[in-house]
Specification:
The protein has 13 helices and 13 strands. The chain has 371 residues and is α/β, with parallel strands linked by helices.
């Protein structure tokens, strides 16, 4: 199976709520003229302006912690699409049950998807004025979506991002509060310069400085975009598993559109280590040497950038996320001190071999599918 959409068939003997196409109401068997008119009247009021697309960022399991909160927060008409890229059987079954219960659309692809692949799949299904992209490891505050929509309604901007806090306790530390990105010319060569505003600062120390403002960089943990902007500048570059947000924001700016930061909308990015093999497999693929090397080289070539210190440093420490999040915690927990350090050093070569195997197997699986 390449891709399937769950959400169109009755389950457990009863149909669940569905997004109804107004063009199809008149063709639906069993609808009387009065019923059709009432349905269309309701749709005229309730027709959603926004499609929410949830994608898996670097682990599969966080959705068990974040999905219920997301569903609770969606108090305006909307269409919700969850893109599931290769979740293990138990998690896939849980997602189907949630889709059955709450009536959202579950799109399943039987292999892990890079975040940009998953987002583009959801974007391509959207038909509403706005598309909200959100990662599966994001916990949302009430009103997050309404405030993002209000910002774009009032500013006419192309896209807007919320105040993104990081980790727990919730709301203690800033991850992203808008940012900037630009291409600079230096001695005949081009360099990218990007900055995350207030990153890693305590929220209590900066909250009085935060205000709605035009920015040039947004992150994709959560972002609301006008769908016609995707149609004009394109979706996410699927050759990039990192730096994709810089690439997309640069393209939007080059097309003459504006980006906004809206601090009254608040979400929380919840990073963490893989919890099981399904998480670990996806994490190792997502941050594989091959994917990161290919992304950095593609980004540099696409924007005609110099092979400067930034790219040399990143290419020189491929795999650092796997080292920091997976390998170090395991070995240093059970083998403290110098013994743990020696074990970490010894396991690096075989871990890189395993990483290449995982990446190669995924490449073959991707070649066999249409998505």
């Amino acid at each position: 199976m390449v891709a399937g959409v769950y959400g169109d068939l009755p389950t457990n003997g009863k149909a669940r709520p569905q997004y109804i196409c107004p063009h199809c109401v008149a063709l639906t068997p069993g609808h009387s003229g009065t019923q059709r008119r009432r349905t269309l009247e309701l749709l005229a009021v309730e027709q959603p302006r926004v499609t929410v697309v949830v994608a898996q960022r670097e682990r599969l399991s966080p959705v068990k912690k974040t999905l219920d909160r997301l569903l609770e927060s969606l108090n305006i008409p909307h269409r919700l699409i969850y893109v599931d890229g290769g979740s293990p059987r138990k998690l896939a079954r849980w997602l189907r049950e949630k889709a059955d219960e709450h009536g959202f659309e579950l799109v399943r692809v039987d292999r892990n998807l890079a975040p940009s692949e998953a987002r583009n799949l959801g974007i391509g299904m959207a038909q509403t004025e706005y598309v909200a992209l959100i990662d599966n490891d994001v916990w949302v505050e009430d009103g997050w979506l309404e405030r993002l929509i209000a910002c774009l309604d009032e500013t006419g901007g192309a896209a807007v991002g919320p105040l993104t806090c990081e980790g727990e306790p919730l709301g203690e530390r800033v991850h992203f509060a808008g940012g900037s990105v630009r291409i600079e010319q230096e001695n005949g060569t081009r360099h990218v310069r990007d900055k995350m505003f207030h990153a890693q600062r305590k929220l209590v120390n900066v909250k009085d400085e935060l205000a709605r403002e035009e920015v040039t960089l947004l992150e994709l943990h959560t972002m609301l975009v006008r769908r016609d902007v995707f149609e004009a500048v394109g979706g996410l570059d699927e050759e990039l598993s990192t730096r994709y947000h810089l690439d997309w924001c640069l393209r939007v700016a080059a097309a003459g559109h504006t980006l906004w930061f809206e601090p009254s909308s608040v979400v929380h990015y919840l990073p963490g280590p893989p919890r099981d093999w399904g998480d670990a497999h996806f994490y190792m693929l997502r941050w594989s040497d091959e994917w990161e090397r290919r992304s950095l080289e593609h980004f540099r070539e696409k924007w005609d950038l110099a092979d400067d210190e930034f790219f040399r440093a990143r290419l020189g420490r491929l795999g650092w996320r796997r080292q920091m999040t997976v390998i170090d915690p395991i070995f240093r927990k059970y083998l403290p001190g110098k013994l743990g350090g020696a074990a970490v050093k010894a396991v690096k070569p075989p871990e890189r071999v395993l990483n290449r195997i995982i990446t190669s197997r995924h490449a073959r699986a991707r070649a066999r599918t249409h998505v």
